[in-house]
Write a structure and sequence with these properties.
The protein is of the alpha/beta class. Helices cover 34% and strands 21% of the residues.
Length: 190
């Protein structure tokens, strides 16, 4: 290969690497050019109210937090009261859906009541089709969806108040917590 051809090949290789790096970094414009994954739609029976249903579609046009948990899960026992408090403090401005996965209704109901949960909770018993469709193979996991129900963040394990605040900022930049005295506005699962 001639010297000129070697230089041309090397320049082309460098150009390809630069283009790849810029596309992964948003092209230098600060914009993320990657498409956000869409959350899978679901409809589940409401925990403790098997004749009623909860669906993601019912929250069309609203950011939503979807939390997968179970009453038998030790990290869930630490996390769920935090989620319940965060929901109450949001004053209903942030929608939240709990998905009780691979659990029995009696222990699950006692668990959400004792944790102070006021957001809707769907029951996803074995084979836990909704849980599996989200790729959840360990509990807890929390998904943060924007108003178009695209997944903007996913947290593996128990979330903290700080992580909730940071993730909500990605969902809806205009959200601000209401006073701690604000009451929740979701369907009481009990």
């Amino acid at each position: 290969m001639s010297r000129r051809a070697t230089i041309a090949c090397a320049a082309a290789a460098v150009a390809i690497v630069v283009i790849a790096v810029l596309s992964l970094a948003g092209g230098g414009s600060g914009a993320d050019t990657r498409a956000l994954p869409a959350a899978r739609s679901f409809t589940l029976p409401v925990l403790g109210h098997p004749g009623e249903k909860i669906s993601l579609a019912a929250f069309a046009g609203r950011p939503v937090i979807v939390n997968f948990f179970a009453s038998w899960c030790p990290p869930c026992k630490r996390e769920t009261p935090t989620l319940a408090r965060f929901y109450r403090e949001s004053g209903g401005r942030i929608a939240m859906i709990g998905v009780d996965s691979n659990d029995k209704a009696g222990p699950a109901l006692r668990f959400v009541r004792s944790a102070g949960v006021r957001y809707p909770v769907g029951s996803d018993p074995l084979p836990a089709a909704t849980t599996i469709s989200y790729g959840v193979y360990g509990l807890p996991q929390t998904f943060f969806l924007n108003a178009q129900h695209q997944i903007v963040k996913r947290i593996f394990g128990a979330v903290t108040m700080r992580e909730l605040g940071q993730a909500v900022a990605l969902m809806d930049k205009g959200w601000r917590p209401a006073s701690a005295a604000a009451a929740g506005s979701g369907k009481d699962p009990g």
